[in-house]
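dude i think i finally got it to work??
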Amino acid sequence: MRDEETTPQTATGTLSPGAPAATRADAAAPRSGPAPWTLRLVAIGLVLTALNLRPAITSLGALLEEVRDGLHMSGSVAGVLTSVPPLCFAVFGVMAPRLARRFGPGAVVCAGMVAITAGLVIRPLVGGTAGFLAASALALMGIAVSNVLMPVIVKRWFPDRVGSMTGLYSMALALGTSLAAAVTVPLTDAMGGSWEAGLGIWAVLAAAAILPWLPLVRSRATAHEPSAAAQPQAPEIRITRSRTAWALACFFGLQATAAYITMGWMPQIFRDAGVSAGTAGVLLAVTMAMGVPLAFVIPRVAARMRTQGPIVVFLGACGLTGYAGLYLAPSGGAWAWALLLGISNCAFPLALTMIGMRARSGAGVVRLSAFAQSTGYLISIPGPLLVGVLYQHSGGWGVPIALMAALMVPQMAMGVLAGRDRTIEDES
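look at this
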């Protein structure tokens, strides 16, 4: 077991015993780092940003039936709507490394928060499906680039606290996810039952997340942001030749498939089983809320383990049990299935932690994060759409739930491979 909080590290990763003497001497030499206020501001920015990376999705999941009725969507079109998030994450996530090199990660995340705010404001105001999808895509574009750059910012600003800082923003992400799922329906009822108001209110939280990044954007030309030029230069990495990168991308994609099916369709599963709309939203909130404590604990535990396979298997087993419960007794054991699927969904913070651990350098983390997340989200696109089609044409949830359970098996296999103690630099 490794303690990542106490292991000496350079600006880009942990020093191995066989590191060149010059590198070790450079790491041991005193060096000026960011001012304490800057690190605090970055930490606040990470937390507020993470809070906004899922409400645009889970608030829609809680009101999906009302949105379908209001915009006259069929089940298949609603399935397309639930597939839009991973599609946008795959397409726009690829842009993040290039934008970060040109403008800096902080500036790109700030722009992402602006895009989320604008999308959430515009989305309730349009009157048709096409406009709704376009506004959603704008918000999801901001989420996509922020998704990719969060591990990069952690590695750059907090290289000796990757596990704890990943846990912190993962916990905030889970909190924002569950909060939106839990309170969107009550807020909608309190505002007169308008689903437009229930979705638009989340723009306020997104606007607040812009503020911490503004000083960093203004000071980007100064030395406040750690300079990539001052860090040890990594060799050119051919990411597509790394088996670990591919395993991590597949693991990320399969866990994203499960997560977006859950966020998009689980409330409807419970409502079709006779659960009220409000309770179905709370059940989704419970599922998401499980990630609040576990998203903080799992990255810290994973960072201290040489291989993360045992955690992958445990999370997968919880998912399989939860799906079995949804199939056999969706309403009778609803709270238990929500808890188990919430535990299973914590594969997401585990994947983020492994992105930071499977590369030695900051440049390696940028490339691995972009590759694993973009490829992973691309893999996840068909899942929610297929569930919608199967639900519409099979007349029930038996076949879709069987599909969800079947996908958990390769997710566990890919996670075990991605969790092996090696880096993409070793394989390149």
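The radius of gyration is 21 Å.
im so relieved honestly
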